[in-house]
Amino acid sequence: MRPLLTAILLGFSLITAASENTADSEVLSWLERMGQSHHQLSYQGIVTYQVGEQLSSFRVRHWLENGQEHESLEPLDGQSSEVHKQRQEQDCEHTNSQLLRRVKLDASEGGLHASYQLSMQGDRRQAGREAVELLLQPKDSYRYGYRMVLDADTGLMLRNEILSLQGDPLERFQFVMLDIDTAQIDDAAEVLLDSAMPNQTQQADLAWQPTWLPAGFKLSETATSDLQSQSYTDGLAVISIFIEPLDSRYPGRDMGMRHGASVSYSVAYPDQQVLVTVVGEVPLVTVREVAHSMRWSEK
Amino acid sequence: MSDLLKESLSALMDGEASELELRRLLKSDDPALREQWAVMHRHRDSLHEPVAFANLDISSRVMAELDSVKQESSGQTWRQALSGLAVAASVAAVVVFGGNLSQLGGGNPTVADSGRVYPATATMATGNVPVSAEFGQSPIYPLNQSNIAPAPAPDALATQQARERFEALLRKHTDNAALNNGQGIISYARVAQPE
Which residue ranges does the record assign to the Anti sigma-E protein RseA N-terminal domain (chain B) (predicted)? Predict the structure, then answer.
């Protein structure tokens, strides 16, 4: 029984190895389309977000106007009716797009296929549209897996599940209804692939930084130019590090919090009089390790 | 092993141990207790399917390893910190809120995190009913390292503050994540959740 099983597994892994490169490049080109369509298309729809037994729904709008991208997210149930809005220039390329693109060059450069096992899972339907399903399984235990469904026409993400290391979904986004205004595709919104990287902080200039991060995580731009936070991404997972003054009432022990796929871990550094908190959609062990690895540069 | 401990242990096995019972168990360093815990798990598991490693108890070796790591780690490097279970073992209390413990659509509330061993993951539901320790299939380890605090007392105010702080940071984190996770504004659904 066992030799047979071994032979089957061996055969399977040989086949897998042979088909890996084609599968990789197919998944990668889908992801690249996803990264662009998300910025270039005008669309609106209803999206649901599920954590545990909780299901909530939102109206999402994304449109382009005068070279600017506008987005809004409006809760349709629950108590909060706060609408999130944001606006940004179209011509900036974010770190995750750089990482998504870099994957094509060389695995040693980092990038998604160095960190994830990529596979196509075939066709399906989502929100009444033809779609393809991708599976990204982590190659180490420092990040989660993703099961994504992308619109076959445009590459827009229609559904995303973050998977625990056991493969169980921790949270799920999915469009249940979507209108894409295909007439509105704005070629001018083509991201500037070879432009200098905007907002990119130089790693060497940082007054503090983690001495350990999971392989493939790169410093990325943060939403604020706040020196008290840093953000890192491997192209899919994002980790943020926050520094706060240490409150004397803070208990000495480490503190972990979890909500859906998001975790935080706080570690006090009495020498620096700060509390370091690492937040991300990664396993607890990852935020814990990062939080414990902080170093301050000599001044 | 006292009857009291036995009772606490089976309550824990059923996920119904009180805070007090959990502390009592964690404080006890009785090898018989560990053995009993392993036996109970083996019995439970064998009801479902044949267990390949039923007779393998690595808990004492893990403890020894933990102690040695602890001693080495005064000038700790991340490599040492990462060595094996030390990582998992020092995660003492994780507060979980909002929705069920882990995976979607019900199922058994196991800590769906890494495949590693979590010694004491006390879960806190939305209210202030803190203790339902679920050890999955891992053996129990007494928490005798100084930097490990037992599950925090059910202090509703402290929990509320910790939670507000977490939500505030999660919001800032989402500002960063929305730029980089390819989902854009949809990411804000994470922080706009009604409780």
Answer: 6-73
Which of B189, B168, B81, B147 minimizes the C-alpha distance to A264? B168
pLDDT in tens, B130-188: 223 333 333 333 333 334 444 445 567 777 888 888 888 998 888 888 877 667 777 88
> Which H helix or E strand runs over A299?
none
Q: Is the pLDDT of residue B74 over 50?
A: no
String of DSSP letters for chain B: --HHHHHHHHHHHTT---HHHHHHHHH---HHHHHHHHHHHHHHHHHHS--TTTT---HHHHHHHHHHHHHHGGG--HHHHHSTTHHHHT--BEEE-SSSSSSSS-------S-SS--S--B---SSS-------TTPPP-----TTPPPSPP--HHHHHHHHHHHHHHHHHHHHHHHHHSS-GGGGGGGTS---
Q: Which helix (H) or strand (E) holds A8?
A: helix A2-40
Q: Which domains does chain A have, with CATH numbers?
A: 16-189 (2.50.20.10), 203-296 (3.30.200.100)
Q: Do B78 and A212 touch (CB under 8 A)?
A: yes
Cα–Cα distance measured from residue A112 to residue A45, given in angstroms and rounded to the nearest whole number: 29
Q: Is ipTM over 0.85?
A: no
Closest residue in chain A to residue B101, using alpha carbons only: A52
Model confidence at B11: pLDDT above 80: yes
Residue B183 C-alpha, separation from nearest chain A C-alpha, in angstroms: 7
A253·B149 Cβ contact <8 A: yes
Domain boundaries, chain B: 3-154, 155-195
Q: How big is the CA angle at A264 (ends A262 and A266), to the nearest 5 degrees? A: 180
Contacts of A194 (CB under 8 A, 6+ apart): none
Q: Which residue has the tokens 């007439």?
A: A183
Using a 10 angstrom Cβ sphere, with 0-12 exposed, 13-18 middle and 19 or more buried, the burial of residue B81 is: middle
* Contact status, residue B81 vs residue A292, Cβ threshold 8 Å: yes
* Sign, Cα dihedral of B163, A46, A174, A30: negative
Q: Considering Cα of B139, then B143, then B148, then B151, what sign does the dihedral take?
A: positive
A269 to chain B nearest CA, in Å? 13
